[in-house]
Amino acid sequence: MSYTIDKIKEIESKWQKNWAEDAVFKAVKDASKPKYYCLEMYPYPSGKLHMGHVRNYTIGDVLARFRRQQGYNVLYPMGFDSFGLPAENAAIKNQSDPQDWTEERMTDMVAQMKTMGLSYDWDRFLFSHSDDYYKWNQWLFIQMFKKGLAYKKKSVVNWDPVDQTVLANEQVIDGKGWRSGAEVEKKEISQWFIKITDYSEELLRDLEKLNNWPERVKTMQRNWIGKSQGSVIRFDVVDADSEKIDELETFTTRPDTVFGIEYVVLAAEHPKCKEWTAGKSNEQEVNTFIHDVTKQSTIERVGDAQEKKGVDLGVFAVNPVNGRRVPIWIADYVLMDYGTGAVMAVPAHDTRDFKFAKKYDLPISLVIAPSDQPDLNVEDMTEAFVEVGTMVNSEQFNGLSSDQAKADIADWMASKGYSHKATTFRLKDWLISRQRYWGTPIPIYYDDAGHPQPIPEEDLPVKLPKDVVFGQGNPLETSESFQYYVAKDGKRYRRETDTMDTFFDSSWYFIRYADLNSDKIIDRDTANYWMPVDQYIGGIEHAILHLLYSRFFTKVFRDLDLIDVDEPFNRLLTQGMVLLHGEVMSKSKGNVVDPDDMIGKYGADAVRLFILFAAPPEDQLEWNDRAVEGAWRFLNRIYLFADLFNKEVDDDIDEAQMDGADRDMERLRHETIKKVTEDFEHYKFNTAISSLMILMNEVDKYKKNVGDSETKKKIINRLIRTVNKLLAPIAPHLSEEIYQLIDGTEKSIVTSGWPAYDEKALIQETIQIVAQVNGKLRGKFQIPADSSEEQVKDLVLADEGIKKYTQDKPIRKFVYVKGKIANVVV
Questions:
Q1: With CB atoms 3.0 to 4.6 Å apart as the test, which of 140, 467, 610, 687 could cross-link to 628 if both were Cys?
Q2: Strands 572-574, 535-538: pairing kind
Q3: Is 324 buried (19+), middle (13-18) or exposed (0-12) by CB count in 10 A?
Q4: What pLDDT is attached to residue 173?
């Protein structure tokens, strides 16, 4: 037999067909078995799988197959995150239907997945543009609306005046619309939000439960939720004549610095900026500044790359702790979504405030001195001092540690009525409105008073219409059939024409997989059987939004009494990127390797083997065509080895008939089972494969001496079965073929069980040690494994070969490293 590419194609095609016809991977709820729910993040149907997909799905498939062989009831589904902007853009460009464009690409990608031998339960295939799926998006939205978790308010957006549509931040390029090239405007429009902030504290606290998540991901979520504890300070706002005209609140986590406030700064979006300068001499300057700043991205505004800019508003804030009047500025480095959108500026102790003050020649007052420079002069400062130090120029708090002063000053200000303690979160409510077509229609109509009302549940789903025009603003507003909701009494009401952010679709699909029941969103008992997902796999780029929203939705499901769990994913794996010549593969760089080409040349099993062997799952993987060929050669060795299987001998081995080589081979077989099993449990697939390679190297030596020995033939049979079962999750097509050839069964290797090892068989009866005289190798000895140091010493010193080098000289020292080396010093 030879494992040629033609033979590979024949084997892989055969087993893919058999798996489908026999529904081998169909998952059915079975309380008598332990369950295992394995899932990769469902992909956007971009058209073709890339190597990042292949790596992701190979990892998941190996785990699913491993658990099946161990006897778990495995749920391993696949689907598509199929709503989204690319399909709509393609529709605009090609005058095509987004659904047709999407489904063509889904068809191509499913075919590729099947070619890879992925063991999905295709009966649970799910895609988010199916009205049977987005019906439940709408049902969920209505439940949230009834609970006050979905609401509408005005929000500032990027507005393209030519395309008459809202643009995401990434669609604004150099201040212009990505498609029209028109200068983008900031526009305040009414949009739908989800009140994720109601769950801020729980989302933060429950990160402690996620013991099997990467710490890096949990840290990113903690930072995104951004819990801050501090003080909200109230300032009187006065004009140039010190007449009070308003009040202003700022939030700070640094009450220890309040005596050093030199100015207060507002975000460009803060409504007071225009209010306080209306009709004043600086009104035009302020309005121009606001226009320019609001076109910038958040990164441009808060990053260190660009110089910070601002304008004096011409009004003042009165510091309540000392009565000092300080100017109020507008600046680009303050954001409206942090705290109150107003920040107290302490240049001596904040890096950005220091640079800003230096640029605009604003005063700087030191209120915390370095412990080793108590007499530091502000004029000598070249940067802000941001460390813990000693309080100075802070009245009764002078001399305290700044850490202690934080609490003391906060308490003092609160007692005086200057401030109140507060907890804030960086996390803001989730804006889900999209003025797009290819998404879930928001199930709302507006009554005669203009108030939003939910579409009755019996009228769901609200389906996407076909009579739309693309490229003229919100396509749903162009549809005659969609404009109005007709109530049971025949009355017409204006429909909501926004669609939902596609993150809404992907925030609960993993729950729907548990039970694709068309009559209700989920069967509670079935969901509780399968949930949570035992292993979730996807890229680190989803660490915040998708994973955070999924955690939020799961808690909402719990509060709607739909499921019992409150966290969706027990274990999270974020796989590394696939590189070529040190760079991430991308079409723009021209360094993409087509999975179809590699599978066509070496077979799916070889590609899978290479991907798992080349690097641990979390690490980056450098693509190497020659290494894929090496993987194929290893599989060819396995295929040829299986040809040695002897059906004429039974499985019983008389241990009395085993010689030393037989015992060594059996011990290595058990050691390999143990090592591979443990490596699979810890996702060390590369070292598991390495163990199989080591075993095969020893097998190659052992099989040369089989001859007519029935015992050795039986051991060879055992080795073939063991290697094949251990390899099955990695190279499933080849393993199925070998399993059928050697056992003549019609059953899948998936149901054959996982090899077991015997701890007793791991014990070595004899071991080899080396002996040195004065540090030089002088002999090797086979000794009983449990030999004591005295026994080893007697054995070594009595040996004629060793005596040659000691020559009756006095033995100064005998050193024995158990199981490895004996050193005689003369």
A1: 610
A2: parallel
A3: middle
A4: 74
The helix/strand/coil state of 118 is coil
The DSSP code for 355 is: H
Encode pLDDT of 402-423 as tens digits.
999 999 999 999 999 999 999 9
Phi/psi at 664 (5° precision) = -60, -40
CB of 342 within 8 A of CB of 250?
A: yes
SS3 content of the chain, % helix, strand, coil (to 5): 45, 20, 35
Quote the crossing angle between the two packed helices 5-21 and 604-614, to the nearest 10°.
90
CB atoms near residue 387 (< 10 Å): 10
Task: Give the sign of the dihedral formed by CA 721, CA 723, CA 725, CA 727.
Answer: negative
Q: Is the distance from CB of 468 to CB of 437 less than 8 angstroms?
A: yes
User: Which residues, other chains included, contact 522 with Cβ-Cβ below 8 Å and sequence gap of 6+?
Assistant: 511, 512, 514, 515, 557, 562, 563
Gyration radius of the chain's alpha carbons: 35
Question: What confidence score (pLDDT) does residue 169 get?
Answer: 63
Compute CA 700 distance to the chain's CA centroid, rounded to the nearest angstrom: 42
Task: For residue 423, give the nearest of 231, 624, 191, 161 by alpha carbon.
Answer: 231
Closest C-alpha to 768, from 757, 777, 756: 777
The token duo for 235 is 């300032």
Residue among 580, 504, 498, 510 nearest 538 (CA):
510
> How far is 679 from 688, CA to CA, in rounded Å?
6
> At residue 2, does pLDDT exceed 80?
no
With b for 16 or more beta-carbon neighbours within 10 A and e for fewer, the 530-558 pattern comes to: bbbbbbbbbeeebbeebbbbbbbbbbbbe
Cβ-proximal residues to 403 (8 Å cutoff; 6+ apart), any chain: 256, 388
Q: How confident is the model over 312-368, as pLDDT tens digits?
A: 999 999 999 999 999 999 999 998 877 889 999 999 999 999 999 999 999 999 999
Average pLDDT over the chain reads: 93
Evaluate whether 771 touches 826 at the Cβ level (below 8 Å): no
User: Can you tell me the distance from the alpha carbon of 673 to that of 687, in angstroms, rounded to the nearest whole number?
Assistant: 12
Q: In terms of Cα–Cα distance, which of 680, 726, 719, 679 is closest to 698? A: 719
Which 3-state string (H, E, C) describes 583-605? EECCHHHCCCCCHHHHHHHHCHH
pLDDT at 8: 96
Spatial distance between the Cα atoms of 816 and 822, rounded to a whole number of angstroms = 4
How far is it, in rounded angstroms, from Cα 16 to Cα 21? 9
Q: Which two tokens stand for residue 539?
A: 């890229």
In angstroms, the Cα distances linking 145 to 141, 332, 511 are: 6, 35, 20
> How open is the CA angle 611-509-104, to the nearest 5 degrees?
65
**3-class SS of residue 521:** coil
Report helix, strand or coil for 233. Answer: strand
- For residue 596, give both structure tokens: 């179809």
Q: How far apart are CA 425 and CA 337, in angstroms?
A: 10
- Tokens of residue 738, six digits: 């070998």
What is the C-alpha to C-alpha distance for residues 478 and 315, in angstroms, rounded to an integer?
Answer: 47
Contact 499, 437 (CB under 8 A): yes
Amino acid at site 824: V
Amino acid code (one letter) for 758:
D
17, with CB counted inside 10 A (0-12, 13-18, 19+), is exposed
For the residues 574-591, what does the mean pLDDT come to?
A: 84
The one-letter amino acid code at 657 reads: Q
Residue 352 sits at the vertex; the CA angle it makes with 348 and 355, to the nearest 5 degrees, is: 70
| CA 438, chain centre distance (Å) | 25
